[in-house]
Design a protein that fits this description.
Length: 176
């Protein structure tokens, strides 16, 4: 009887102690888990504050790239007096490559689909220039290649650099 009474007295103190201990452990675990979530959210928020301007700048830079490599702007900017068609073709392609290479790193800030449109626009412009150059005598004045490029571009239904700019704008509106 005394043994049962001692066991009951022990349980009277042990069970509440265990309950208090388990409750404290659970509350402590919940507190630290919640605190960790808050810290992660703060880090994400701080990162977004830093990355958002960079991402916006990437969209701006890529839109500028596409404007700069659009045939109508490119031909006007690159063509110089005394150039022949072959020289103009070389300079146009060199300018496109340089502009594109200068902005390669921007792809990490936009979607893969948008980057693909930028690459397609560049390739389309290169193909347009090369196709037109095949139809013009290499020694002909640069004006002939310029006219051919502009006429070919005008006859297209979708102007690739401008279509890519629209994709960038649409994506930017979604994210921002």
């Amino acid at each position: 009887m005394k043994l049962i009474e001692n066991a009951m007295n022990t349980l009277e103190y042990t069970i509440p102690a265990i309950v208090v201990f388990v409750t404290t452990a659970v509350l402590t675990w919940l507190y630290f888990r919640n605190d960790e979530k808050k810290r992660r959210q703060e880090i994400i928020l701080n990162n977004q504050k830093q990355v958002t301007p960079i991402r916006l700048q990437a969209y701006e830079r890529l839109a500028l790239l596409l404007e700069r490599i659009s045939p109508e702007n490119l031909v006007i900017r690159v063509k110089q007096q005394g150039m022949n068609s072959s020289m103009l073709q070389t300079e146009l392609l060199k300018t496109i490559r340089s502009e594109f290479d200068h902005n390669l790193s921007q792809q990490v800030y936009i979607s893969s689909e948008a980057w693909e449109k930028v690459v397609e626009a560049k390739e389309h412009t290169v193909k347009l220039i090369n196709t037109c150059a095949l139809e013009v005598n290499a020694q002909a004045p640069a004006m002939e290649l310029s006219k051919m490029v502009l006429q070919s571009m005008m006859s297209e239904d979708v102007k690739s650099p401008h279509a890519a700019i629209e994709v960038l704008k649409k994506e930017m509106r979604i994210f921002f």
